[in-house]
Amino acid sequence: MQHGVENTHPEKVIYEEAITGKTATYGLFHRQIRQTAFTLRQTLALRPGDIVSISASSCIDYILTAHAVWWAGGIVSPINNTLHVDEINHALDLIKPRIFIVDETLYGKIPAIKEGSHHARQPNKMEIFTIGSKVSTGWLRLPLVNLPPGEKGLELHNPIRANNFDARKTCAAILLSSGTTGASKAVMLSHHNLVATCFQLRSDNPRNWRGSQREIFFPPLSHVYALYVCFTINLWLGSYVCLMPRFDLELYCRLMQDRSATLARIVPAVAKMLAESPVVCKYKYPKLEYFSCSAAPLHEETAAKLRKAFPGAALCQTYGCTELSGPCVQSGVRDRKMPLSASGTVIANCEIRFVDLDGKDVGARGPGEIVCRAPNAMMGYKDNPQETAKTISEDGWLHTGDLGYLDEKGYFHIYDRLKEMIKYKGFQVAPSELENIIIQHPLVHEVAVVGIWSPKEETEIPRAFVSLKEDHGRDAVSVAKEIADLVASKVSNYKKLRGGVLIIDALPRNHTGKLLKKKLKDYEAISQCGQNQLASKL
Question: Among 53, 119, 163, 443, which has the minimal tally of Cβ within 10 Å of its Cβ?
Answer without folding.
Answer: 163
